[in-house]
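Amino acid chain
________________
===
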Amino acid sequence: MKTVLITGTSKGIGLETALAFGRAGYKVFATMRNPSKASDFKQKIINESLDITISEMDVDSDVSVKKCIDSIIDKHGKVDVLVNNAGIERHGSIEELSMEDFKSIMETNYFGVLRCTKKILPIMRKNQNGCIINVASVSGHISNSPLGAYAASKFALEAVSEALAQEVKPFDIRVAIVEPGIINTQMAQDIKSAKTINSIYPQVSRFGGLFAASLKTPTQPTLVADKILEISESNTWKLRHPVGPDSEPFIQWRASMSDEQWIDWNAASNEDWYKSVEQDFGLNAR
């Protein structure tokens, strides 16, 4: 039986990914900071008789990651697939967002991935086999306000994943980057709430309006979970995997612009920006 370790499984994409792997017959180690809050998840495991073990792990902590992964390896000997999903988001302008917010985002979204990856890699390398799937974002390609801090963490994650893929391919270890667009998760709902934030920078609130408009026809996190499972089950060496109806189109749209055009689009007046969103995406973000 194949084993998978998934981080950040308390809700959203992580929760649905754990269930998808469990239903596919994997032995799943679902990790999260607070297992005591996972009562609904635990009930689903019981109801469906899934081989899912919930473990406490805080990816921000060297001690927590070592303790959890050492316990799994001691009992089961290996982890075939690692899904680095745990992530947080803080939104706001560069000037107004606190340094603590910048640090906490990098601690979880970047250093947290490194902690888990570095702990799992020796056993995968020894076995000459493995798959590491890192959940990044469209924001790993595209940076715009008020997601500058979040995008910085995802740009960093994409960069280190690309380097890692080069290092571990000779050991038959696959690395994949999953890039969701706007998915109906608590994180997206939080960005949507930026619509009401009072900021000296108009980009902060109006980008929340774009999320609000997109979430009127929501894309469910199960779509991302299914893609992650598909990558694991396949023999693909493809590095980047955009997910969701807006992911690839938005990446391509950005790629069609010069950097200066992109900056001008985001720096436009409210009226011009809202008109452009409606014209380009068919969304009323007002």
